[in-house]
Design a protein that fits this description.
Blueprint lengths: L4 E7 L27 E5 L14 E3 L19 E5 L3 E5 L4 E5 L5 E5 L15 H6 L9 E8 L5 E5 L5 H8 L17 E5 L3 E5 L26 E7 L5 H15 L1 H5 L1 E7 L6 H15 L4 E2 L5 H19 L1
The structure holds guanosine-5'-triphosphate and magnesium ion.
Magnesium ion binds next to helix 2.
């Protein structure tokens, strides 16, 4: 199961106390305490979901060490780095977005550690009182946060249930997701990597009314926000391809403008159920009526899979320019 939300408690480290200490001639030589460590959130492309985080655990950064004799500084705490997948949005409990981690290696300091206290060596100039006193360390901070994952992929497969979306991701990548002849086989986003670098996502089927919560609803659609390309799948099993295409476009529009405005590749799937001539004639008809250029595809026909692969790559390349 894809874990795309987690609540966490985080705490930065307390500062270490400074030391009051004197050498054998009575001179102040107590060192300063180290600083408490920060809590840092880091984006990592190799992390896929939020499953490793435990909502019952407080993620605490190290405290600073206390000051040592001979004026030696206590060590600063090592920062606590929480590695999150892309894109992870961090919210506070009031629902305000604190940061959006969108790039590999992107860092954000969520909480700053407490400052180390001062030992009596540092304060020695401040009169006799200074010699005997130290400045207290400050405490770390605590915060409750909510992490929300919005998967970032190059392309997403969308369309009616049973259109053959999971079969396509399986054919284009090394994924082995469940394929079945009934609707809503896929209930969660599923990822696969094509040719080692292009991430594809297969999503549950959409139906008219998804935007109002029908079918699997819109919960998972946050994962479409960061995609560059939409692969819209329509099965040749449908009598009226244009009508099906247009009503799905209307649904996209109701769901989100990002989805509606996303660059689209139209794939007419299961082309093998018709004769090659029939399939081509339906494709031509569809293209003529809509003014688009849909691709014919069957997961049983290697050549058609290559055409889709090339199309995905060329569209992504032209977006880079
Ligand atoms: N003839 C033929 N059947 C196919 C093709 N691709 C998929 N199918 C069949 O169509 C059915 C649905 O395939 P899936 O890949 O599960 O479809 P889906 O779009 O992921 O379905 P949901 O997850 O329910 O939305 C399965 O029985 C597949 O074997 C194809 O190219 N040709
Ligand atoms: Mg599926």
């Amino acid at each position: 199961m894809l874990i795309d939300e987690k609540k966490l408690k985080i705490k930065s480290g307390d500062g270490g106390e400074g030391l009051i200490s004197f050498d054998n001639r009575g001179k102040a030589y107590g060192g300063d305490g180290g600083n408490g460590a920060n809590v840092i959130i880091v984006g990592n492309v190799n992390v896929y979901d939020l499953s490793k985080f435990d909502s019952n655990h407080t993620y605490k950064a190290d405290t600073g060490d206390r000051g040592h004799t001979h004026c030696r500084h206590g060590k600063d705490g090592e920062p606590l780095r929480l590695e999150v997948p892309l894109v992870t949005k961090v919210y506070n409990m009031e629902g305000e977005e604190l940061v959006s981690i969108e790039e590999d290696g992107q860092e954000f300091t969520m909480l700053v550690g407490g400052e180390g206290g001062l030992g009596n060596f540092t304060l020695r100039g401040e009169g006799w009182d200074g010699k005997l006193s130290r400045k207290r360390a400050t405490r770390g901070e605590e915060l409750d946060i909510r992490l929300e994952l919005n998967l970032k992929t190059e392309a997403i497969l969308l369309g009616y249930p049973n259109a053959g979306k999971s079969s396509i991701i399986n054919a284009l990548t090394r994924a082995r997701y469940k394929v079945a002849s009934y609707e809503f086989t896929t209930l969660e986003p599923q990822m696969g990597v094509m040719d080692g670098y292009i991430k594809l996502m297969d999503l549950p089927g959409l139906i008219e009314g998804t935007s109002e919560g029908k079918g699997v609803g819109t919960k998972f659609l946050k994962h479409t926000k960061y995609s560059q390309l939409l692969i819209h799948c329509i099965s040749l099993e449908n009598e009226d391809l244009v009508e099906k295409y247009e009503s799905m476009r209307k649904e996209f529009k109701k769901i989100s403008t990002t989805l509606h405005d996303m660059e689209e590749i139209i794939v007419l799937t299961k082309s093998d159920i018709a004769t090659p001539e029939e399939a081509v004639s339906r494709q031509k008809e569809f293209n003529k009526t809509t003014g688009k250029s849909a691709i014919l595809l069957s997961t049983y026909l290697e050549d058609s899979l290559d055409i889709l692969k090339k199309e995905i790559k060329s569209r992504l390349d032209s977006q880079k320019k």
